[in-house]
Amino acid sequence: MDFDDAYANIAHIPGADRFVLGWPEKAAAFRDSWPQKELDIAYGDDPRHCFDLFFPTGQARGLVIFIHGGYWRAFNKDDWSHLAAGALAHGFAVAVPSYRLAPLAALNEICRDVAAAVKVAADYIDGPLHLVGHSAGGHLVTRLISGTPLLAPELIKRIVAVTSISGVHDLRPLLFTRLNDLLAITDCIATKESPTLLMPLPSVRGGQIAVSLWVGAEERPEFRRQTDLLALSWGGLGVPVAVEHEKGRHHFNVIDELENPDGNLIGVILENRNVN
Fold this sequence. Notes:
Layout: H1 3-6, H2 16-33, E1 37-42, E2 50-54, E3 63-67, H3 85-89, E4 93-97, H4 107-124, E5 129-134, H5 136-143, H6 153-156, E6 159-165, H7 180-183, H8 187-193, H9 202-205, E7 210-216, H10 221-235, E8 241-246, H11 264-269
Parallel strand pairs: 3-4, 3-5, 5-6, 6-7, 7-8
Antiparallel strand pairs: 1-2, 2-4
């Protein structure tokens, strides 16, 4: 198996540069147009330890936290602001954090950065928490609800739904990629930080946290496999995992529906619990 090719999205998506270059422009336009926001809220000491918080019109019905992807090595919060639009339309506040990137931070440290961001963001907004992550972000949000707890029990109780979009849930194949020259994932890190290999938290097994896995049907086979693998792993432990392979979507446009308040993806993220 060519592990490098298996995880190469740009090489297999026509017009990939159009998506990558377009995200910061769309995000900046959204930030300029959305009046109710607080930007660059610190959650730690590093310059990347910050998040943007977008407020809905009226009282927030809860908080959606979006964790971006980029193979734990690229992008920041300023590239994704526009993806808050769908949840905001339903009355939810949306937090979009940055976190430290490889190689300046090890992957296990990045997991703890995201946990710290969730903790501080949750202090700003009352109500239920909905965690959603794309690609590497999908790994990070599912790691928050499995293995050694990274969040305090009272915070875990507020999480009602976790959605991984095109997530990488088993880190072991990355050990055989050139990408790992940068990520420096070790056997130990892969074992301790791969949600597929970890026990989901009791609230996940008990059904208090709804778990949804979303992936584009046109994605690289490895990303579809990673999605189905977590569903099989956690499903075998009694977790009711919902899985969707969305037709006509690939790794870069599968997140477009986060902007659409009437889309199925937003309904899954919000678990239809607070959607009119």
